[in-house]
Write a structure and sequence with these properties.
This protein is α+β, with helices and mostly antiparallel strands and 321 residues long. The protein has eight helices and nine strands.
């Protein structure tokens, strides 16, 4: 299967080209999950303006996305008052002030092309920090009656990110794990069948010995999992599925590993539906090929009609015109 890239290829390619030679630009495009971008040069060709509009920005801002982007893009991020209209975040890049070295320029381009990932990282990073705090303050119940007590669990805030229309991402930290739940909508019956097959593979793959350290995955159709069952307004229809990932501290033990985990898990919904569409396209192409082969067999099986020569009583031959 193909792993989707967490950075924006268009931003990466355009910035790489403009870093080599400055020129005017006004490029608008859409990334996964209806995230809109605009790369323009409103003032001068040496000053690039990169703006992003994301549907779930109010949710992300509530969990510290603005503050996180200020740390990641210090010197580039514009204040809210100067953000481009109809967009949530704007970065300004002065081509006269970019690094001179090729490696430093490539690193800057890669960092700027991860704008969407870094914005969506805020609730995950907050939950990872919350898990560490809960783990440090957690105490096992003591006493003779421990076995009779229900398992105690300290839980943090349930973070809800409505990243698409009718679809959301739920993140909650506990003292020993971070739970991530995706709600996704399958608009067609065939999508539900393919999705069930793919998700069952995710569940079964962890049984392999070399994947024992992978996050636990569970899937439920129609009925939401226990972690979010109390949330009001959840859909309970046949076309809705819920996928739960259980992340343990080993999956975000250091900053590099945490960012790698975030980059993969936040693209899960796009990864799933992308491969559903690829599988349907492959099946359709194979069906068309098989039908074409059957038509060839049927054409070869047609009997040849023998045309007998017909003559009149006087010996003349009939001719068809």
């Amino acid at each position: 299967m193909i792993l989707l890239e967490s950075h924006s290829v268009i931003i990466h390619d355009v910035l790489t080209d403009r870093f080599e030679k400055a020129s005017r630009a006004d490029i608008q495009f859409v990334d996964y999950d209806n995230v809109r971008f605009r790369l323009s040069t409103p003032e001068a060709k040496t000053v690039l303006l990169l703006s992003m509009a994301i549907q779930c920005w109010p949710d992300l801002a509530r969990y510290g996305a603005r503050e996180h982007l200020e740390q990641e893009y210090a010197g580039f991020l514009l204040p809210e008052a100067q953000t481009e209209p109809e967009y949530n975040v704007s970065l300004t890049i002065d081509l006269d002030k970019i690094p001179a070295g090729a490696e430093d320029r490539a690193a800057l381009v890669s960092h700027l092309s991860l704008l969407k990932r870094n914005a969506l990282s805020a609730p995950f990073l907050a939950s990872f920090a919350e898990q560490a705090s809960l783990q440090a303050s957690y105490k096992e119940p003591a006493g003779a009656q421990v076995a009779d007590l229900p398992p105690a669990e300290a839980r943090g805030e349930l973070k809800v990110v409505n990243y698409r229309e009718q679809e959301a991402m739920f993140i909650q930290a506990s003292h020993d794990r971070v739970t991530v739940v995706f709600s996704t909508v399958f608009k067609e019956e065939t999508d539900r069948v393919y999705g069930r097959v793919f998700l069952q593979e995710f569940v079964d793959a962890r049984k392999l010995q070399h994947l024992q350290s992978a996050p636990q995955v569970s899937y439920s159709s129609r009925e939401p999992p226990l972690e979010i069952r109390h949330v009001p307004g959840l859909q309970r229809t046949e076309d809705v599925g819920y996928v739960t990932f259980t992340l343990f501290p080993r999956h975000f033990a250091n900053p590099a590993q945490a960012l790698a985990t975030i980059a993969r898990i936040q693209l899960f919904r796009d990864y799933l539906h992308y491969h559903i569409k690829c599988s349907k396209a492959y099946m359709h192409s194979r069906m068309r090929h098989r039908v074409a082969e059957f038509l060839k067999v049927l054409n070869r099986a047609k009997p040849e009609v023998a045309t007998a020569e017909r003559k009149t009583a006087s010996g003349r031959t009939f001719r068809s015109r």
